[in-house]
Amino acid sequence: MTDLKQTVLSKITEKDVVTLAKQLISVPSVNPPGKLEEISSFLSCQLRDMGFKVKTVSKEAGKPNVIATTKGTGPALLFQGHMDTAPVTETERSSWTVYPFAGVVQDGKIYGRGAVDMKGGIAAILTAAKAILEADAELQRDLMLAFYVDEEAGMMEAGSMFVVSSGHLDRVTSAMMPEPSNMQVRYVFKGRTIYEIAVTGKTAHTSSPEIGTNAIVKMARVIGALEDLRLKFEPHKWLGSCTVSATGIEGGMPGTNPSVPDFCRALVEVRMVPGQTVDGVKREIENAIEELRAQDHDLNTVVKVLHRRGASETSRESEIFQVLWASAKDVLGKDPELFTGGGAASDLHWLLEKGVPCVEIGPGPRNMAHKPNEFAEIRNLVELSKIYALVALKICCPETR
Ligand SMILES: [Zn+2]
Questions:
Q1: Which fold has domain 3-187+314-400?
Q2: Choosing a second label site near 112 at 20 to 30 A (CA), which of 146, 179, 215, 254?
Q3: How far is the CA of 380 from the centre of ligand 1 (A)?
Q4: pLDDT digit string, tens, across residues 222-266
Q5: What's the rounded Cα separation, in Å, for the pair 110 and 150?
Q6: CA-CA distance, 291 to 362, in Å (whole number)?
């Protein structure tokens, strides 16, 4: 192992990682409501103190994304994360045995909202970056960090999508993030597309419904047809099948108004596997509705894509995958495992869509995300910090490979 590697690794201590994770958990950033100024300014201060050049960029008031760079020019390696967390609901609160915003440490675990998803991971990244800057490593490629708002809000438009589409990450040539993965390496990502289906009918008094067209009844048939729809796809070895779920519906007038509803709107979410396209799936949905219409000429529908994210796969031959694999092996003392956790979509999508190779590795236990008594294994956070540090060194200072 080179001296530089040793110096950097020796600077990563459990105490530092846990202290930072505790501080991050102590700044609540639950979403909703998604008020994220405080966590954003906490991270900005930390990064400035470490020697990063820091800026914040916002699409919406109260939602500043944080971007930090070292050199500020040339190709860059990006470590990213989301600053917001799932909320602590009223119902959930009574199941917590510790205060969710204190970062209680017990038996090798750190507890709190965001401990595993993903404030523990952010603490690991920050500790890694700090060790590299303190070791005065001569970086040939820029090391960038980006922390986003609104990942937990579902649509991510003020967060990663905005930061990528407004050009702030155009220099990024590879990226990594610590979504909880039980230390498994993830390189394939399901797509997530939300379709809005609107059905219009004809209103009438409910004493003579036969002269109206009930939009809710028509929508029930549309949803039934989509439930039965067999989309064309090849099941993926790691991601399994494409799935279709109706996630919302509204129609009719509020209260007990005696009117046949003339409008109904539903949201349908499709989680796609590599090989499927957003437009291809939309066509299949429209064809299924078209078949219904062949039997029911009164069916009036409009299908709109509200949110589109295709499925992606990073090549296992890519530099970032290879370097992550070797670094994880160095730290864990054995080959890491490939991610078997299925199909959540990733905030890396907007970079993946631009062809930037991206991978994920994060702490465990993955199944504690968004749960009462959420915790992260401290051992994982320290391993993770060392893995991110080695990846940064090997990519930004290739002589350390
Ligand atoms: Zn997450």
A1: Aminopeptidase (3.40.630)
A2: 146
A3: 16
A4: 999 998 888 888 888 888 889 999 999 999 988 888 999 999 999
A5: 24
A6: 45
